[in-house]
Design goal:
Alpha-Beta Plaits; four-stranded antiparallel sheet; YdhR; Dimeric_a/b-barrel; Monooxygenase
Length: 102
C-alpha cells in the first residue's frame, strides 16, 4: 500500500469555477482509476493550496497514474500552478491499530 499527497495552487480562477471546472468533472473519473483506494480532497483557500491525499494499492498503481493522460491534462490547465507530489510507503500494521485501515 502506498500514500501520496499532491498539492497545487490556483491562478485566475474563483473557487466556484474551480469546483465547476475541476472538482466536479474530475471526481467521478478519479473514482474509477485502477489501483486507487481513495482520495481525500484538500483545500486551504487562505494559503491558496489545494490537492489531495491518495491511498494506492501499490506504488506501481501510483506511478501509472502519475504518467497517465489524466494527470497530464490536469497539470496542463492554465489555472493549475506549482504542482508537487510526495509519496510514502504505508505502515499497514500501525495504520490498522489506529483504525486507518481495516
Amino acid at each position: 500500500m502506498h500514500a501520496q499527497i499532491i498539492t497545487y495552487q490556483l491562478s485566475g480562477i474563483s473557487q466556484a469555477e474551480y469546483l465547476e471546472k475541476m472538482v466536479e468533472p474530475d471526481a467521478p473519473i478519479l473514482a474509477n482509476v485502477k489501483g486507487l483506494i481513495s482520495k481525500v480532497w484538500l483545500a486551504d483557500e487562505e494559503k491558496n493550496i489545494f490537492g489531495g491525499f491518495y491511498l494506492w494499492e501499490s506504488k506501481t498503481a501510483m506511478e501509472d497514474f502519475m504518467h497517465s493522460d489524466l494527470v497530464k491534462a490536469v497539470i496542463s490547465r492554465p489555472y493549475v500552478k506549482n504542482v508537487s507530489s510526495a509519496d510514502y510507503e504505508v505502515n499497514q500494521k500501525a495504520s490498522k491499530i489506529t483504525h486507518a485501515l481495516k
